[in-house]
Amino acid sequence: MLRVLFGILALSLLFSFAACREKIPLKLTSRQTDLADTIFLRQAKDLRVLMDSLCEAHFDERVQDAVDSMLVVRRKEEEELRARLRKLGAENE
Question: Mean pLDDT over residues 25-39, rounded?
């Protein structure tokens, strides 16, 4: 119980100190916007190359997984249809 109270007190103090910080401007200057855009574009270019190589490396595996999934669904549908036809055939006899 004492630990819980101490934890709550510690978190309260932490949040109160965080609230006393200097206010950050909500609007970026044009220079800051340009810098952020430049950093983003550089990182996006690097990530695009990485993502493309990962897609190429796993393409065949993903296609096979998709095909297997479609086959499972189709086989289930086929079995349900065959069961319905057997039931209809048994009712007509």
Answer: 88
Secondary structure (H, E, C), the chain: CHHHHHHHHHHHHHHHHHHCCCCCCCCCCHHHHHHHHHHHHHHHHHHHHHHHHHHHHHHHHHHHHHHHHHHHHHHHHHHHHHHHHHHHHHHHC
Q: How far apart are the first and last CA of the chain?
A: 75
pLDDT at residue 11 tops 80 = no
What pTM did the predictor assign? Answer: 0.44
* Cα–Cα distance for residue pair 59/53, rounded to 1 Å: 10
Q: What is the pLDDT of residues 58-90, one digit of tens each?
A: 999 999 999 999 999 999 999 999 999 998 888
Q: Specify whether the CB–CB gap between 28 and 36 falls below 8 A.
A: yes
